[in-house]
Automatic annotation (TrEMBL):
Enzyme Commission no: 6.3.2.4
Family matches, as HAMAP family: Dala_Dala_lig
Full protein name: D-alanine--D-alanine ligase
Gene behind this protein: ddl
Enzyme class name: ligase
């Protein structure tokens, strides 16, 4: 009997646009001969499944749907919802309470890693991992600019602490630009992170766990024509040069695999995640940027690129994630 997959997408934030694109790609790659896949759309207003022209509501008591007088319950949830509530732990906590297996990190890890500042505090001290000097700010905090200028050197990166897709993020080269950048970030979040600029080559690497253990995919090197890898650079086709596998020598590859595996284990990750990092140009040191527990899954997204570069089939990769989630439960 085919397993029933709830492909959960949508969300409460502007990242829902990316979520829908990711879900369409994943759905096209899951074998319909092995799985019945239902796209479950979650918005602030409603939870539902589109069947034909009909919106079938999700019963939040047990995450089931009623179709033709049949109650359909799911075997596993494939979470592909970027931002809240799919990436911040809320959905995972709900699934834990009703006993539904899911493909992503658990509620605690998801909530923690959504906060960039807290995440860096946890992984700080891991072997070969370095972290840019930073200041974490909260809405309404007094003397914010003084706190930044007295502790950090220009240029700065100003970013929402709980955001994604580089929304609300700015690079500050002059102090005169700081106030506007802080306002822009606080429009997206009540916490922001201000970091010193690291002059480095930027990479992003997928890491996942299956029944054999933690595995690291080939990294993607990101070369952006913009000041940094912002929303436009991420989602405008052809704007950014992406090299997979990224240009690293054998020592760098080995060290990166060690660091990102340690990060994955330290944060108690499950399923697939994506870890972004710099290799500083002057020193070749590994600088941790952030971790994404629900990485994008469009045709041009990093994870599908890396799965292909590893000589794997993306359909088999997704099936592996599904089976691992079921076995873990």
């Amino acid at each position: 009997m085919k397993k029933r997959i709830a492909l959960v997408t949508g969300g409460f934030t502007g990242e829902s646009v990316v979520s829908f694109k990711s879900a369409d790609f994943v759905m096209s790659k899951i074998d319909p001969a092995r799985y019945d896949v239902y796209k479950v759309i979650i918005t602030i207003e409603d939870w539902y499944v589109e069947i034909g022209q009909q919106k079938v509501p999700v019963d939040k008591n047990d995450f089931s749907i009623a179709v033709d007088n049949e109650i359909i319950k799911f075997d596993v949830a494939f979470i592909i919802l970027h931002g809240a509530p799919g990436e911040d732990g809320k959905l995972q906590g709900y699934f834990d309470m009703i006993g539904l297996p899911y493909t992503s990190c658990n509620a605690l890890t998801s909530a923690l890693t959504m906060n960039k500042g807290y995440t860096k505090a946890v992984v700080d001290g891991l072997r070969n991992l370095h972290i840019a000097r930073s200041v974490q700010l909260f809405a309404g905090q007094k003397n914010a600019e003084d706190l930044i200028t007295s502790n950090l050197q220009l240029p700065y990166f100003v970013k929402p602490n709980n955001g994604g897709s580089s929304i609300g993020m700015s690079k500050v080269k002059e102090i005169s630009e700081l106030a506007e950048s802080l306002e822009k970030a606080f429009n997206e979040d009540s916490q922001i992170l201000v970091e010193e600029f690291i002059d480095g080559r930027e990479f992003s690497v997928g890491v996942y766990r299956d029944e054999e253990g933690v595995k690291v995919l080939p990294a993607t090197e990101v070369i952006s024509p913009k000041e940094f890898f912002d929303f436009e650079a991420k989602y405008t086709p052809g704007m950014t040069e992406e090299i997979t596998p990224g240009r690293m020598n054998e020592e760098e590859r080995s060290r990166v695999e060690q660091v990102v595996t340690d990060v994955y284990v330290k944060l108690n990750c499950q399923g697939m995640v994506r870890i972004d990092y710099f290799l500083e140009k002057a020193t070749d040191k590994f600088y941790f940027i952030e971790i994404n527990t629900i990485p994008g899954q469009t045709e041009t997204s990093f994870i599908p690129q890396q799965v292909k570069a590893a000589g794997m089939n993306i359909s088999n990769f997704y099936e592996n994630l599904i089976q691992t989630a079921v076995c873990r439960h």
